[in-house]
Predict the 3D structure of the following.
Amino acid sequence: MKVFESKCTFDYSWNEVSTANWRKYCPWNDKSTHVIAVDTLSRTVDPSTGILRTERLITCKQAAPRWLNSLMGSKDTSHVLETSYVDPASKKVTMCSTNLTWSNLLSVSEKVVYTPMASSPESKTEFHQEAQIAALCGGWQKVKNSIEDFTVERFGQNAAKGREGFEAVLEMSRRVFGEQRELQQQGQSRTMA
């Protein structure tokens, strides 16, 4: 098993990040064109904790070579199950994802956590990402290691694109919500005048 880990800080508040997180696969993110669909399977709020739990099915264009798809009998799409927990009391978003496609050959389990930065909780959010990648195919350890190494490298490339795309979503969200607040304030000023 191999582990990929990444940390960074977004120059946006936790409220902005946790809200924009639902839009990270929208047209504002030109780095997520591989995402074909995001379907919400369930969404519940725990009445005792206030934690929002959401399950989503993410459908992506398959990045595997055609010969491999043909050999494995798979299609041009892959599926990922994402379960997220938004805890407004502790200001923590936790997202857990696992691959459903080829899960009998390769296990990819990812965990992402967003929390306010301790030194600047009103303006910055820390991002921590960890993925555990394990080739499940039998055979030689060298083959398993090669598959895991390739997958970790690809995961790292995609993670960098994902952060870049999410930055664009955050920027656009801040601008659009700012414009909306300004319009609302103008409307309220007119009604009071």
